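Figure 2 data, in text form.
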Amino acid sequence: MDDARPITPEAIMQLGWGFWGSKTLLSAVELGVFTELGNGPLGLEALTSRLSLHPRSARDFFDALVALGVLARDGSVYANTPETALFLDRNKPTYVGGILEMANKRLYRFWDGLTEALRTGLPQNEAKDGGEDLFGVIYADPVILESFLRGMTGVSLPAAQAMAALFPWNEVKSLVDVGCAQGGATATIALAHPHLAATGFDLAVVQPVFDAYVKEKGLADRVRFAAGDFFAGSLPSADVIIMGHILHDWNLAQKRELLAKAYAALPDGGRLIVYDAIIDDARRQNAFGLLMSLNMLIETNGGFDYTGADCIGWMKEAGFREAVVQPLAGPDSMVIGTK
């Protein structure tokens, strides 16, 4: 008897209609559903009123979030799940919604141009219509910038926590976090290893947000900010240089340039940690990393994500004598190069 499961289009249809669930979640973040529920469960009418929603579809909206697994419901009373309570309440330091807010405000509409991008190889964001590139848009608006930096902290925290535990920090005394954003990774590692002197390196406009975050974490005495453009000059020196969610933004020549700058800034025996949503070498499993690479097509002129083998090869071309890949959290892995 043949026990094989019947072939159905179910998985294809779920993937094809996946944007429905995605946009429902993004709108919930934009509306502040999870933040509103951060103070406790609310009934249908109260939640509808507090969010200023029209009653026609409010129940369907909230129940869709229940069915999608991001809200809980007891009768007609709604509550956050443990995950959304921790990660989507704007009042918590673990909030990752900043990056989702940007996805909702910008990326969702730009991904409509994926087919054109695949045919032309050109970005589909503001730059398409003669506007500024991705970073020009983000860094020009203080509100967008702070939201982006907070979002990067939320997205980076799981990887930073894993890095703090897995890397032998007892063997080094200093680190520089290149493209540090708000300082999520910098502070996480410094908190876990009090002997470290840490520096966040980013454009000068980032400093107020970085300094406020570091002060909030009680680290102002040993975590400092260094302003600079990593393409315009040399990198600060330290025993360890970190590049997190940085390398994938740039084309191959720029990737190689950044790795060469890191090599030049490190002492003999120093180490470079690159972390991104590293694609598995067989290019079959890390769907997030591959989709992120398509996002780089949408957002940048030449950026792309890469495999661990790719990064190891570039590091060795830059002079690093050895390099290894280590998984971190979720889709992220780190590649550690030793000078």
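Caption note: The two ends are 60 Å apart (CA to CA).
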